[in-house]
Amino acid sequence: MSEAGQGHRYFLARHRLADLIDVLRGAGGRARTVIGPTVEQGAIVYAEIDTAADLPVGWRDEQAPGHYRLRREGDERAFAYAVGPTAWKRHLFPPARVRMEVAAEPGADGTRFEPTQPAASATVLLGARGCELAAMRVQDRVFRGGPYVDDHYADARDAAFVVAVQCTHPASTCFCTSMRSGPGVEAGYDLRLTEIADGFVVEAGTDAGGEVLVSLRLDPADEERAGEAHAAVAACAETVTHRNRGVDPIRARDLDMYPEHPRWDEVAARCLACTNCTMVCPTCFCSRDVQQSVLARPDGTVERQWDSCFTAEFAAVAGGSFRSRIRDRYRQWLTHKFSTWWPQFGTPGCVGCGRCIVWCPVEIDVREEIAAIGTSAPESDAQDGGERRGDVDLGPQALTTSPGGVPEPPPRTGTVERVTTETSDTVTLRVRTPPGLEAQPGQFVLAAVPRVGAPPISVSRLEPGTLELTVRSVGPATAALCRLGPGDPLGLAGAYGRGWPIEAARGNDVIVVAGGIGLAPLRPVIDAVLADRDSYGDVSVYVGARTPDDMIYSAEIGTWEQRRDVTAARIVDRAGPDWLGPVGVVTQLFADTAREAASTVAFVCGPERMMQASVDALVDSGMRAESIWLTTERHMECGVGLCGHCQLGPYFVCRDGPVFTAAELGPYLGVEGI
Amino acid sequence: MTRGAPTVGVVKFASCDGCQLSLLDLEDHLLEITGTFDIVEFAEATSRRSPGPYDVLLVEGSVSTEEQAAEILELRAQARTLVTIGACATAGGIQALRNWADHDEYRRAVYAHPEYVASLATSTPVSSHVRVDAELHGCPIDRGELLELLSALAVGRRPQIREDAVCLACKRRGVVCVTVARGIPCLGPVTNAGCGAICPAMDRGCYGCFGPRPEANMPSLTGSFLASGGTRADVARLFEGFTAYAEPFRTTVSDLRGRGPEEDADAQQ
Q1: In terms of CATH architecture, what is B7-155?
Q2: pTM of the predicted model, to two decimals?
Q3: Which of residues 13 through 32 in chain B touch A, CB cutoff 8 A?
Q4: Structure ipTM
């Protein structure tokens, strides 16, 4: 046989499957763990395989919406089934792993955040199907695409030797041919097997795979066997395409254009929000970080666990959940899979494996939902009309990722220098910036208290060597931050996100509109503009708050009001005993002033409804939505685009924002449940 | 005990003591617990008694007698943080099945001298009587969740106890769905996580002992059970367990049975 065997087809007789597994376990002198299909708990799951006898030899599966059964056929075939409930992500992105070790011990260096180092052992993934390899490529883009990467995933992926098996026995729920992910396997394998009557046609996709073939001393597959293998996969494709319901991925990409389609309510009435679809999905990647410590011990860990966009707390912030209804969550899940995944990662998030259909206890079939919403949507419902989709290549080449980026960094320890009380529940911490932390106005940090949490906090002032964080106590983690005093350590991760385009605003009139604690992320804008006052045109600052007592930086607002080169005004929803100023909403302060569209830039932050009203008023006064910048709040868990929580339409607020233009946010601002 | 350590009381009403024993079951951590908290009232463990006040009061059991209905008001006044533990305290317990039945008939059937038994017509959760700050679900509670509650109180974090479905923990654990793969009715989709999906891991359906999730979609799940061939009585039986009286299981049981329970004891007061 040829040296490495790549590009050639060999024949592995059925009785030599055991030899293949032996070689895989010990190939190259290193012990590998073989994970492969086996019958457990009434299903074919992926678990550790010791011998060929562990494989599901002679078993067949029967799959339909909400239905999975095994039956014994009694023949010799080992791979005559479609994918079961386990996805390979279990081994590449495990359900729970310790991400960081933390400590809160006394002393200067007592506060520590140590990321755990990846240490994946060599593993063989035996029996991966075409859709599953496509799913790995999808997750490669999520976890390795940058700018921040999950180094544990990357390590596990690099340590995996992939033995792909082409599908010959599809289930009724398979729609791989729709998503161009199977049933054949075209890329991403070390070895590729196709099962035929008396054994397997085997090909190597890498040198490592070729070495395995060499050590097995296989004969080339004859024409008849090669033809049988080819025909089996072709017949499978034919069955999936013509017997099964499919999905048109290009049409499905438009799902997010119909957020008010009545079908969302209908499917929500059936959906249990049980999370099963997301747990079995091979591409779902969302996670939560769980703080773990025992009683009063100073040490603890942060464990990253699988999460789901169907959970109650997934999109929750202190004020409540952005997706409080099941309808909102189902819509988020389906539109993410088929629509918003495209702008995020350049592919759909679905590979057509059908797991979410089979393992839904109430038989919800995404193919039916997509057909109902995508084909029956009235034209007038479309939120952004017109043809926005070009031709898309879904083939394996299009899905190949380009690894890049740096591992998610741990918090660095900073020290509180000064604490200023702003209101009854809000303080400003002035923190000596830890070395290596750089921040821009508009960015945020994760402010970490060991064992308690790491809420995202906007930077509210930047000076050489220090930064300020204005924190409102709205839960235990922010309360812990508010309890810090001078000299106390805290962790700072970041700074993250896209900041305010202050430089680009030079030469323009500048308007700053703040609501409540929304003034905090805007203060660095005001600082920067006033420090370089001559570079800007007219500067206006409008501040609203619920009551005078809720107004942060009150004395500082007074200094802005005193300046002749700044127009500053404030307003409250309800007056207090000493309030002599206007009462009402913040837009009252500026709505009547006409603006020069070409030379005015606005920076806005506050409650979402207030920002929406401000955008409307500014646009009415002549401004363009592209020149109005907003900063948004969403649930941020990781800060670097890996955990999935902070999605807002196509955006990850942590990575693509938190600062956006009103034009970018237009379709999403103020839409309930997005 | 540390000087100035938060005081903890453990008290019970109508219950089996199993949840309190979960605290003693934290054997490896008992010394640390007593080093972190000052346990001033815990009849299963100490002869110390305290009428309060308590920084933390763990309350087991349902309110089943008039004395208990009065006592819980007093205890609430003495507790800075009141945490109910277990299905009896959080949902009324298995004894709340009497709320759908004739109380006197039950008493006569069980006791030789029913006239000595002074119980209310209903068994109700503590939250029907007083404000509750936190709940630990389960029959019995999960000792890991209890340790997390105490640990979170010790360091001032939000207890990492979420409103998840059992399914989330079940799938993380790698358990194959018993409903889909075996046709076994399972209450996992509508039940609070916290148990670690013990029952599905043992090849049986969840029977809901951690109680209904706040957003349980009952019509969908019961509709699915009925469509699979269960009679209304069969499906009602699935929910008539330790947490039947907690909404929305309560309404589901009543709808399926065609009759409602007695009103809450607090409504009678």
Answers
A1: 3-Layer(aba) Sandwich (3.40)
A2: 0.94
A3: 29, 32
A4: 0.95
pLDDT tens for each residue of B110-153: 899 999 989 999 999 999 999 999 999 999 999 999 999 999 99
Q: What is the pLDDT of residues B49-103, one digit of tens each?
A: 999 899 999 999 999 999 999 999 999 999 999 999 999 999 999 999 999 999 9
Q: Are A350 and A256 in contact (CB under 8 A)?
A: no
Q: How far apart are the first and last CA of chain A?
A: 58
Q: Tell whether B35 is within 8 A of chain A (Cβ).
A: yes
Please tell me which of the candidates A86, A360, A475 has its beta carbon nearest to residue B158. Answer: A475
- Whether A359 and B180 lie within 8 Å, measured CB to CB: yes
For the four alpha carbons of A604, A609, A612 and A613, in that order, the dihedral sign comes to negative
CA distance B92 to B125: 4
pLDDT digits (tens, 9 = 90+) for B174-229: 999 999 999 999 999 999 999 999 999 999 999 999 999 999 999 999 999 999 99
| Closest chain B C-alpha to A667 CA, distance in angstroms | 28
Cα separation, A89 vs A183, in Å, equals 19
Flag if A280 and B171 touch (Cβ within 8 Å): yes
Whether the predicted pLDDT of A20 surpasses 50: yes
Segment (H or E) for A479: helix A476-482
Does B156 contact A at CB distance below 8 Å?
A: yes
Q: How high is the mean pLDDT of chain A?
A: 93
The pLDDT of residue B237: 97
Between chains, do B165 and A358 touch, taking CB under 8 Å as contact? Answer: no
CA angle (B85 as vertex; B81, B90 as ends), nearest 5: 100
Nearest to A95 among B172, B186, B217 (CB): B172
What is the signed CA dihedral for A575, A581, A582, A588, rounded to 10 degrees?
-130
Q: Do A274 and B167 touch (CB under 8 A)?
A: yes
| Candidates B29, B156, B220; nearest CB to A452 | B156
Q: What is the DSSP letter of A177?
A: T
Contacts of A294 in chain B (CB under 8 A): 29, 32, 147, 151
Residue A357: list chain B partners with CB under 8 A.
none
Predicted local distance difference test score (pLDDT) of residue B38: 96
Looking at residue A6, the DSSP 8-state letter turns out to be: B
DSSP state of A221: P
By Cβ distance, the residue of B151, B158, B186 closest to A294 is: B151
How sure is the predictor about A389, in pLDDT bands with cuts at 50, 70 and 90? very low
Task: Answer whether B176 touches A (CB < 8 Å).
Answer: yes
- Nearest C-alpha neighbor of A258 from the set A350, A393, A371: A371
The predicted pLDDT at position A374 comes to 82
Q: Please answer yes or no on whether B189 and A272 come within 8 Å at the CB atom.
A: yes
- Chain B residues within an 8 Å CB radius of A271: 217, 220
Separation of alpha carbons B5 and A432, rounded Å: 33
pLDDT above 70 (res A551): yes
Instruction: List, for residues A106-127, the tens digit of each pLDDT value.
Output: 987 899 999 999 999 999 999 9
Residues 186-225 of B with CB under 8 A from A: 186, 188-190, 203, 213-217, 219-221, 223-224
pLDDT digits (tens, 9 = 90+) for A149-172: 999 999 999 999 999 999 999 999
Q: Domain segments of chain B: what residues? A: 7-155, 166-267
